[in-house]
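User: I want to check something. If I give you two sequences, will you return the structure for each one separately, not as a complex?

Assistant: Yes, each is folded on its own. Here is the first sequence with its structure:
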Amino acid sequence: GLWLMQWLVFGGIFLSFYLFLRLLDRRLDITSVTMIAAVGIACSISCSFYKPELFSALFFAWTVFIFFCFKIKRIPYLLYLYPLLFALWVNLHGAFLVGFVFLALAFAGEFLNRIFFPRESWTAKELIHFAAAGVLSGAAALLNPYGADYLLGLLPTIKIAIVKSNTENLILAHSSLWSYLKNLSFPFFYINVTVWMMTLLMAAVLVISVYEFFKKRAFDFTMLIAGAVLYWKGMQTGRASYFSLFAFFFILLYLLVHRMKIGNFHGGATVMSLLVFVFLSAGVSYINIRYQPDNTWFGRGLDDFVPAKEAAFLKKYRLDGPIFNDYLSGG
């Protein structure tokens, strides 16, 4: 059932992407498919494992999707889906905190839009709705078996995420990705795709923002702030890279299709997308044939990758706790 759960999560993420394309009146063409495939491949270094963190990938994608739904449609009740989402998320994985970070960044960006570019910004009433939804979501986070104690227990994790610590040398998932901008080689194919995708997408957001400013004397603070912070964190901590990639998928399409009104990409873009798709497919095929990764498709070889027998032992004998190791030495 683990692989089935994994693919249901991936299906839920894809659904958020597809619905966003439909929201923008775009088809699932080769350009869109290539973008989704590239994001999927780039995210594989951090969210393809059989872990509760899979749910964070799913809920973060829907957090961003709901935000852009409101940004485009301006229907306030959409924002009040957030408390329900966070009430579920808080009981599944601790990275719900990243969802709150995104909401805070979005509120800061929309507040600046209101001050500097009032003609294209949310109204004061819409900002109040967004803030109210955020407060209610914070209250919903208390709906867990340990209440406020659970949230307080996450403070050391927050400190590790903000302050540089020795965990970068102890945990591979916490290591920085900056060096892989220069270290290009096929054994690091997935990591190279991840860092260069994030970097190119961040550069695209910057270029579009500068272009908009000179053409319309306005740009979207939210896209710049959220993109820059998530990009920095994704490069600083490899484990967090998928948050950046998911956000950039929505940000870039929103800027190109909704703000710049590019309804259809030109033939050159279609050809380029096809070439990128072929390159990524060839790279993935080569890596799987040449290096034969441990985590194979659809649960094949699962017992060699996750502690299935150990879990069965715990279920059978019901040992008295506490029995789990600390974070740095495995579970």
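And separately, the second sequence with its own structure:
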Amino acid sequence: QYFDGIEMFETAVETLRDRPSTALLEALVMLGWFHVRFGKSEQAKALANEALRLWQHEGVKVLAGFGSDAHTLISTTSLVQGDHEAALHWAKQAAHIAEQRGDRFNLTIAHYNLCDAYIAKGEHDAAYYHAQQSVMLCRQSGDRWFMAYCLNNLGQLMRIQGDYIAAREHYQESYRIREAFEDSEGMAVALSNLGRIALLQERYEEAWPALERSLNLYLATGDQGGLLRVRCLLAEACTAFGDFDQACDYLRQALAATQQLDATPHTLMVLAAIGALAVSVTMPDAGAVLLCFVVQHALVDRETSEQAQLMLKRARDMLPDAAYTACLLYT
């Protein structure tokens, strides 16, 4: 559980901080990963930079092992904060360093991060290449646990391309692996992805239990980013059922949680969902203002922007020209 993990690594860092060592470097990076899950990306980046200084200036060695390289952690925090170019820069550095020292574990994460960053930028061919590389490395090392992460990326790419059947297969395989490892957070991710596919296919009766179970698993682990995403999906499901009050409740909870996160793209995702709900309940002017803000924001990821643009077009069709122009001026 994340709550226990963060406490354990905080104690380790406090104990080891006065003695530069590989153990301290590992503890700093692992604590940083836990902060990412709790939505504290600035704290995670500070820990990663401290670990990086140990490696660069103190000559502390980095052991081969998943997530032990500070470069991949900085790449992840940059992506969470919406800085896609920085995410690519740090992931490329991580890949180069891992290749030089024959560290297949961190090389796999570097390719995974590169895939994530290219997806966020909307460069799907490059993303697919790195997704394949990460899958290949997992197969070579026999690592099924991280394979589940890589399958989620492949599923995401298939979903974006509209191949929902292939996406569903990748997500189902990811879930089966996570279930075998009794990995609650991983099962939550896979279930939210399966719920999203069911929503896209308008299989709402199937989407609801998957998303509800995902929410409960996220609540147990404390993954704040995951909670935001699944609450937005549950709001979408409620909207499809016509339960607008419940949709509002989920989005209200999600919006409140964004105030505790260092993750502007997550906030924009929630605002886009609120805008979409406003359009769905025939408040196109209010929805258009929010959706315009999201689309024009420098830190919005490609997928959120494209979804917001689709709903904005729907709002545009519902509004007189003067009213729509006023919404644009307001933003």
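Because they were folded independently, the notes below concern the second chain alone. The radius of gyration is 20 Å. The chain has 17 helices and no strands.
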